[in-house]
Specification:
Blueprint lengths: L2 E4 L4 E6 L6 E2 L4 E7 L2 E6 L4 E6 L6 E2 L4 E5 L1
Antiparallel strand pairs: 1-8, 2-4, 2-7, 3-6, 4-5, 6-8
Length: 71
């Protein structure tokens, strides 16, 4: 069953740190969001392998919006 990594704040995707097929562990930074001129890392909450990247660099996202799927 796929798990989802969501944006924890509203902002812009400044940088994507992983790609499909990358293994992540709990605490791995998967993306960096920019909000109010501050860079905020988005971290994996569990271990797994990235299966889908749902956001793109420069994209505006809302709090709670899915950014990645992993298994």
């Amino acid at each position: 069953m796929a798990k989802v990594i969501k944006a924890h704040i509203t902002g812009n995707v400044w940088k994507i740190e992983v790609k499909v097929g990358d293994a992540v562990e709990e605490g791995t930074t998967v993306a960096i969001l920019e909000s109010m001129k501050m860079e905020m890392p988005v971290e994996a909450e569990d271990e797994g392998v990235i299966t889908k990247v749902l956001a793109a660099e420069g994209q505006a996202v809302k709090e709670g919006e899915p950014l990645f799927e992993f298994e």
